[in-house]
């Protein structure tokens, strides 16, 4: 695997750990490495535990340096990879357990929305979609994920105002399924994954397809319609404030 992502598998459970040595910025390289790790997990027919090797941070979201570059190709490549990763997780044939080690900014929050079981830690952390606070529209694929997983009022709050939520509020909103002490996070994720290893994977995959068919189709359509190189090229020609 990439030096940014480690992959281990045992007893039908794979562990994907992202660690860029800093705050897990979702750069093209990290996103590509995560996609490759999920490819491997699918071949292994393994449950995935997706987590971070950084204490206090799951992910700082998309690489703002790439976003600020105004390079249409670089921005397109990064956002496309992120969207495809979220879509892949949403429809992944085996269960995906996300163990959130702290802050989860977009794109990290999008991965939580796409995962099956989401566990976070209690503490002074923030989770949500803060794009409008930094001058970026929330991508349509992320809004579709939000419609699928979030309480509507909380989706409105985070998407339209950039509000970020504490772990307890993120639990209420729908970003997380449970909140545990930091020391219990990985053990809790492993226990849940162990229980999920006993279910019928074929039945899980079939049910997931039926349950998420409309949402997965909406995410796919949003990616295909909005995330194109031509669209980013057009935006690069619009003057600031235009």
Description:
The chain has 242 residues and is α/β, with parallel strands linked by helices. It has ten helices and twelve strands. It has a six-stranded mixed β-sheet, sandwiched between helices. Strand 1 (5-10) and strand 2 (13-18) form a beta hairpin. It starts with a strand and ends in a 6-residue tail after the last helix. The model has no long low-confidence stretch (mean pLDDT 96).
Number of domains: 1
Q: What would the principal axes of the Cα set say about the shape?
A: globular
Output the strand order for the largest sheet.
1-2-4-7-9-12
Q: Determine the number of helices (DSSP H or I, runs of at least 4 residues).
A: 10
Rg for CA atoms: 17 Å
CATH class: Alpha Beta
Number of E strands = 12
Mean pLDDT: 96
Largest sheet: 6 strands, mixed
- SSE string: EEEHEEEHHEEHEEHHEHEHHH
% residues in beta strands: 15-25%
Give the name of the CATH architecture.
Alpha-Beta Complex
N- and C-termini, Cα separation = 43 Å
CATH homologous superfamily caption: 2-enoyl-CoA Hydratase, Chain A, domain 1
Uncertain parts? none
**In CATH terms, what is the fold-level topology?**
2-enoyl-CoA Hydratase, Chain A, domain 1
In a few lines, what is going on in this structure?
With 242 residues, the chain is α/β, with parallel strands linked by helices. The protein has helices at residues 28-43, 64-68, 72-90, 108-114, 140-149, 152-161, 167-173, 185-196, 201-226, 229-236; strands spanning 5-10, 13-18, 25-26, 47-52, 56-59, 61-62, 96-100, 102-104, 117-121, 127-128, 164-165, 178-180.
């Amino acid at each position: 695997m990439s030096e940014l992502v480690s992959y281990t598998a045992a007893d039908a459970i794979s562990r994907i750990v992202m660690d860029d040595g800093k705050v897990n910025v979702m750069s093209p390289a990290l996103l590509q490495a995560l996609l490759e790790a999920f490819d491997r997990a699918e071949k292994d027919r393994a449950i995935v535990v997706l987590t971070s090797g950084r204490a206090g941070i799951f992910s700082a979201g998309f690489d703002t340096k790439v976003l600020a570059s105004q390079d249409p190709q670089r921005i397109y490549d990064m956002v496309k990879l992120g969207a495809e990763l979220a879509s892949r997780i949403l429809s992944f044939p085996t269960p995906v357990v996300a163990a959130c080690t702290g802050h989860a900014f977009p794109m990290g929050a999008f991965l939580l929305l796409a995962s099956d079981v989401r566990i976070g830690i209690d503490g002074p952390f923030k989770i949500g979609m803060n794009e409008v606070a930094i001058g970026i529209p929330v991508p349509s694929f992320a809004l579709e994920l939000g419609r699928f997983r979030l309480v509507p009022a909380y989706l409105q709050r985070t998407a339209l105002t950039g509000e970020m939520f504490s772990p307890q509020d993120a639990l209420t909103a729908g970003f997380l399924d449970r909140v545990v002490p930091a020391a219990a996070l990985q053990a809790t994720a492993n226990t849940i994954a162990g229980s999920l290893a006993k279910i019928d994977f074929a039945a899980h995959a079939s049910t997931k397809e039926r349950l998420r068919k409309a949402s997965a189709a909406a995410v796919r359509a949003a990616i295909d319609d909005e995330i194109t190189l031509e669209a980013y090229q057009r935006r690069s020609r619009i003057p600031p404030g235009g």
